[in-house]
Amino acid sequence: MFCPNCGNHILDANASFCPNCGAQLNSFTQGNDQSSAQQDSQQDSQQNSQQDSQQDFQQDSQQDSQQDFQQNSQQNSQQNSQQDSQQNSQQDSQQNSQQDSQQSWYNQFNYTPPQQDCTPCAPSANYNGLSIAGFSLSCAAIIFNFLFGLPGIVGLILSIVGLCQCNKRSEKGRGLAIAGIAIGAVLTLLMIFVYAGLILAFDNGWNSGPRYY
User: Fold this and answer.
1) How many C-beta atoms surround the C-beta of residue 161 within 10 A?
2) Which of 1, 53, 118, 149 makes an SS bond possible with 191, Cβ 3.0 to 4.6 Å?
3) Three-state secondary structure along 121-187?
4) What is the mean pLDDT of the chain?
5) Which residues contact 135 (CB under 8 A, 6 or more apart)?
6) Full-prediction pTM beyond 0.90?
7) What pLDDT is stored for residue 34 in this prediction?
8) For residue 165, with 0-12 CB atoms within 10 Å meaning exposed, 13-18 middle and 19 or more buried, which class applies?
9) What residues contact residue 26 under an 8 Å CB cut-off, 6+ apart?
10) Burial (0-12, 13-18, 19+ Cβ within 10 Å), 1
């Protein structure tokens, strides 16, 4: 500790008077204590005022931001609802105007729009199996007709039976049956002519040969 009057260094911290100049030390220490207390109180008040101002600023900014957000959200929702209502009203008005114009046109020319038939469709008819088999055998007889003409004859018979069933049962395959009949008939007649020619040729050869009696 130093004397504030003469600047002498004092070893005793609890001394009330300076041993060099005899000045009283308590008055200086009290003044210093008071000044330090005032400084502390001023610092505390400044800190408190700064903290209060910061808190008030933060609260005000938060409140302002919340209010702005709420106002913006409300405005956006109102604008969206207004736009949706306007679009819906415009669409409804356009549809109503179109319907009214169509109805007026119908009334002007006494036109009735066609109505859709809601009756269930009848099931589609199936193909006749005999017609398909007869047509297949008749076509196969073109290649395998060397088997004594049997494929053509069988295809002709099956096609005739299939055509009769198609007419009675209203089944599909009438065209196949007719084609099988035509092919089978042509091949059958061809085989008849071939066999007749072979028989005549064999008979002529037999009669023209030498006889030993």
Assistant:
1) 16
2) 149
3) CCCCCCECHHHHHHHHHHHHHHHCCCCCCHHHHHHHHHHHHHHHHHHHHCCECHHHHHHHHHHHHHH
4) 76
5) 155, 159, 176, 177, 179, 180, 183
6) no
7) 55
8) middle
9) 16
10) middle
